[in-house]
Amino acid sequence: MLTVSNEVAMLVRGNISNNAVRNCLKGSGIRVCFLLSVTFVVFFLLATSHRFGTISAYYVSRNANESYYKKIAQIEHLKSSLPEVKVVQAEYRKEHSFTKSATSTGCVRPTQNINDSEIMPLIHSFSPLKCSNESNWFTARNGKLILMQEAVPQNASIQCELQPIVFNDDFTVKTLDRSEAKDNMSLQTDFFKIQCAAAGGKTYTNYHATIVPKESMNERANPVNGFKRPLNIYFLGLDSVSRMSFMRKLKETYKHITEELNGTVLEMYNVVGDGTPPALLSILTGKTEEELPETRKSQRNASFVDVYPFIWKELKQFGYATLYAEDVPSIGTFTYRLKGFKEQPTDHYLRNFYLKVQEDTHEYNPLCLGSESQYQVHLSYVEDFFTTYPREQPKFAFQIHVGYSHDDFNRVELADGPTVEHLKFFQKKGFLNDTVFIVFSDHGARLSSVRRTKQGKLEERNPFVSIILPPWFEQKFPSAVRNVRKNGNRLTTPFDLHATLKSLLNFPPPKVGDLRNRGISLFSEIPASRDCATAGIPPQWCSCLSWKKLPTDALISWYIADELVKAFNEQLKKQQMLCSPLRLDSILEAYVSQPTDEFVAFVGSKDYDGREPQFGDRLGVPYDSYRLTIRTNPRKAIYEATVLYDVTKAVLLIDLDLVSRVNAYGTAPHCIMSKDSYLAIWCLCYDQL
Predict the structure, then answer these.
(1) Where are the transmembrane segments (predicted)?
(2) Could you check whether the bond before residue 508 is cis, i.e. omega within 30 degrees of 0?
(3) Is residue 127 classed exposed, middle or buried when 0-12, 13-18 and 19+ CB atoms within 10 A define those classes?
């Protein structure tokens, strides 16, 4: 337990004073140290009159059986001494610019251990996936239907019907009239359902995907600067895989990327928000959801996501063929909370294929389609995309696979072998010679036991991202490649991936990135002084911060937790006839962020080379961050919240957008999903009690 004096020291940045005393004793006389000590005593007395200083005087040990009500009673008794609380919105963050001083030492990478002692007991292996023992009767490649002779019952004649599947909208399936299916026939659509009957009574039903190319897109295409013809761009994504988890579970893929293909891993890549939409929107539009037009289902007059400035719209102007692919349509990035697409967004779009599979099979996440894994279908669709179009046709493919990794981080190891073979396919066919290939994830595990470990919180914020460049690239653009490798150890974000895409249309970008730009191309050197504020990373997602643990029975911890639950309940009043109010159950963890002594005291460099630092300043930071993990009743919901403390104004700022639900809520908020999905993380419908 912290003592009162320690707590006061912490809240008034006592680490500065402690460091100064230590330096004093090292290099100064006793008289100077005595005067400095008197100064600290005066500072201590002043600090205890500060609003947080007053709180610290009431940090006392409590008996384990002391009731929550007694703690809240203490808070009420001391209300006049506690800081003011404001519940703020995103507009307030913009207006007040929650950023650090322009003087910064940049991001210090937090330590992560691939064999973390809390995480390793949660790791286990998965048995190999077993799909149907009977081989698929048909496959489809390059827009052709192919009969697999060895799979058809021996000496049996078969009759087959083919039903094309086409885009209608993001929520309904449209099929065309059935027709007779014949071997080697040309297909009219990318997706189809096929049903066969053999003379001996055997039947076959399956779903297939291929590429039926659009007409030439090179006509009237804008030329790109820097290349004779545009480079292909391919994003291969796996949902919910941290950098550490990728190294644990996809070992052969990691080895192949880093050793065989000389790829660069972005080790300090940091998410910019909660879940998949912030990650993908930042890459594909360069903007946050809040900066884009309103598209949430629950909001009146919301638009379809067609209005977003997706990068593929610009790429089409340069003659690119485009592909976007996700599986598991029930939790689609642009359809779970958002209104989805009204028109097909890319030339090839996989969602309607999976909608039909889900509609017919009633399976949320079918891992197999006949004898073939669903993941292999996913990969083969992109391989078809590259082989069906002419080599000179520039291609943009963006796919993210959810099925293996979203619900169980251990299962992603099933993707290891197929992903290596997919990379080898691109090597063998020569596509890597003209493709910028990015293997990535959107974030680490979010709703799992790993997420509830200390390192798991860091891993959620540090997904795997790597970039593979054509072999000739380094010889032609040595400076750009050096920057990519250097940036592997610089703070990077999804905004940078967007800037990288843009730079491929007008190459090369500046040699050194401008910190005034939120997104910086990976081909430009990202300054080492970059921090979360200049990179556009909100405080609660910034893994550069150094957190100091608070006692969970500290009054400030209970005060913030109680105010959080009040703020949750204030939101729930909007649907109070449907949603039960919440009660604070317990505080699981509490932390306060602290800059390092070096950060606070750093002034600049003494020497020309920048090797010898000069200390002596006492520059503080304008905001402290408190991070709490709390549990509420009913139903033991767990939340992680970041609350900012405005040091100058002595005000606690609660922004509900900085709150995440850590454990899954399942069907708890079903009664309000179509009315107000924003409340989903807090709402427990009365019929779920």
Answers:
(1) 32-52
(2) yes
(3) exposed
The H-or-E segment that residue 641 falls in is strand 637-646
CB atoms within 10 A of CB 522: 29
Q: Which residues contact 588 (CB under 8 A, 6 or more apart)?
A: 552, 629, 630, 631, 638
Residue 177, Cβ density class (10 Å: 0-12 exposed, 13-18 middle, ≥19 buried): exposed
Q: What is the pTM of this model?
A: 0.74
Pairing of strands 191-198, 158-167: antiparallel
What's the burial of 23, exposed, middle or buried (CB within 10 Å: 0-12/13-18/19+)?
Answer: middle
Percent of the chain residues past pLDDT 70, beyond the cut: 79
Q: Domains in the chain and their CATH numbers?
A: 80-108+545-688 (3.10.450.10), 218-541 (3.40.720.10)
Please state whether beta strands 84-88 and 651-655 pair in parallel, antiparallel, or not at all (unpaired): parallel
Q: What distance in Å separates the CA atoms of residue 196 and residue 82, rounded to the nearest whole number?
A: 74
Structure tokens belonging to residue 646: 């405005």
pLDDT 10s digits, 574-592: 999 999 999 999 999 998 8
Q: What is the largest CA-CA distance in the chain?
A: 104
| 159 within 8 A of 197, measured Cβ to Cβ | yes
Where do we find the tokens 């300043």? 617
- Determine how many CB atoms are found less than 10 A away from the CB of residue 592: 21
- The closest alpha carbon to 461, from 270, 274, 288, 639, belongs to 270
Closest CA to 114 of 18, 200, 242, 213: 242
Amino acid letter for position 499: A
Task: Give the integer Cα–Cα distance in Å for 354 and 329.
Answer: 7
DSSP classification of residue 373: E
What pLDDT shows up at residue 7?
37
